[in-house]
Design brief:
The structure holds two protein chains of two kinds. Chain A is of the alpha/beta class. Chain A is 41% helix and 21% strand. Chain A is globular, with a radius of gyration of 14 Å. The two termini of chain A are 14 Å apart. Chain B has three domains: 2-49, no CATH class; 55-137; 141-290, Histidine kinase-like ATPase, C-terminal domain (Heat Shock Protein 90). Chain B has eight helices and ten strands. Chain B has a five-stranded mixed β-sheet. A three-stranded antiparallel β-sheet of chain B has the order 1-2-3. Classes of the chains: A alpha/beta, B alpha+beta. At the A-B interface, helix 1 of A face helix 2 and helix 3 of B.
């Protein structure tokens, strides 16, 4: 049964996106799984949707270290768009850096900070409890 | 001449200093001159050769700039470890987990299984390395007052299963009101490491224990972890005990990072660690942290 209309991953790492799409395909929980290769590309799309009154994804999985716009820039700018508060954002990063961890805490994302590798069971549980 | 005029014009006998350099027999020399008016029409000039001082200063500046560059490199390296390397191992593990889902039998093949183990080990190594590197940048200014008894108590609780399995008793003999100025995450990690170390290296056939005590000595708060475990031959391994990736016992799982990290964490907090040990008797680690009234 599909529980979500759209789940999005923002990550420049092709293998990570591939893994994520495979996991989602196996789980079969979302009608659409979309992906963006950096924060800027994702933001432009979200801004356009916001202007056209189109809906955002239900959940966004956000990588941090990306070219053009990194995850934090996307996060902070996206939060300024109208109605973006309702969207759940998970940080999905390979970063072990305490700097990133601190930034997550600053933004109240302690519970939404996931370290790669994200395994199948973890992802399933996460979506189940949403 | 200008300086002399200036000196004479000053009523309050002010000293006018300046530095200059001259080339003498092909070598650049530096001088410092102090000038002060003496009477109405005389000026005392004293000149000092400060070439050595100047050269040392230049050398120090040069060393400092090298150090800064190396620090920057280390920071970049930390970044590479915590981001770039990690993302590749995460991908490897992710792909292997997909493979396991699609084709579980393929893990009967030892090549695949070993590849899986290697990916996991690589991931662990990178996590450890990151921990070591992050610590290098730990800030001693983050010290706050922490209750030592509670810290030890908390650690004892978290390792209690491990201790029970190994048959090791843990004793917290610290006074309930002893506080220590420290970086809390480091203190937790130090105590945890010391306890797990004592548990890991317990000796079969005796009532094993790890006893934690504390006392004051001069300007230090002394914390001791005493066990009656297998001990280590310090005359053989003493130098290397706190080194990175050194292991001295092949029979237990150890990565050789615990003591290295512990020592570094203690040093960042301006403390030191000593060890006394005898094979088949036991080991006592003594940690000195600066005592501050808290």
């Amino acid at each position: 049964m599909k529980m979500f209309k759209e789940i999005t991953i923002i990550d420049d790492d092709k293998i990570q996106v591939f893994l994520f799409l495979k996991f989602m395909e196996k789980m079969d929980k979302a009608e659409i799984v979309s992906s963006f290769v950096n924060g800027k590309e994702a933001f432009d799309e979200m801004k356009e949707r916001s202007e056209n009154n189109a809906s955002y994804p239900d959940i966004i999985f956000l990588d941090l270290n990306m070219p053009v716009w990194d995850g934090w820039l996307f996060y902070d700018e996206f939060k300024k768009l109208p109605n973006s508060d309702a969207i759940t954002i998970y940080i999905l990063t390979s970063s072990l850096s305490s700097v990133d961890n601190d930034k997550a805490i600053e933004r109240g994302l302690n519970e939404k900070y996931l370290n790669k590798p994200l395994n199948f069971e973890q992802l399933r549980e996460l979506l189940q409890n949403k | 001449m200008e300086v002399i005029d200036e000196c004479l014009s000053k009523k309050n006998q002010e000293v006018i200093s300046f530095e200059y350099e001259l080339e003498i027999s092909g070598r650049r020399r530096f001088f410092n001159a102090n000038n002060i008016a003496f009477g109405e029409d005389k000026v005392i000039v004293s000149v000092r050769d400060i070439t050595d001082y100047q050269e040392n200063l230049d050398r120090i500046k040069q060393l400092l700039s090298i150090q800064e560059k190396q620090n920057e490199k280390l920071l970049n390296f930390t970044h590479i470890v915590s981001h770039n390397l990690r993302s590749h191992t995460a991908n490897m593990q992710g792909l292997l987990s997909l493979l396991k889902m699609d084709d579980p039998e393929i893990f009967d093949n030892p090549y695949v299984d070993l590849m899986n183990t290697s990916a996991e080990n690589l991931n662990d190594t990178i996590a450890n390395l990151n921990e070591v590197l992050e610590m290098t940048f730990g800030d001693p200014d983050d010290k706050i007052s922490v209750n030592l008894y509670k810290t030890v108590d908390k650690s004892i609780k978290s390792v209690s299963t491990l201790a029970k399995e190994a048959g090791v008793s843990l004793y917290n003999e610290i006074d309930k009101d002893v506080a220590v100025k420290s970086i809390p995450a480091y203190l937790d990690s130090i105590v945890f490491n010391m306890l797990t170390n004592g548990i890991k290296f317990h000796r079969a056939g005796v009532d094993s224990y790890v006893r934690v005590t504390s006392s004051r000595k001069d300007s230090f708060l002394v914390i001791q972890f005493e066990d009656n475990g297998v001990g280590v031959d310090l005359s053989l391994h003493g130098e290397k005990l706190f080194g990175m990736y050194k292991t001295f016992h092949s029979h237990v799982e150890s990565k050789g990072l615990g003591l290295f990290i512990t020592k570094n964490q203690i040093e960042v907090m301006d403390g030191k660690i000593d060890v006394e040990s005898e094979v088949n008797k036991g080991t006592t680690f003594t940690i000195y942290l600066p005592y501050e009234d808290v």
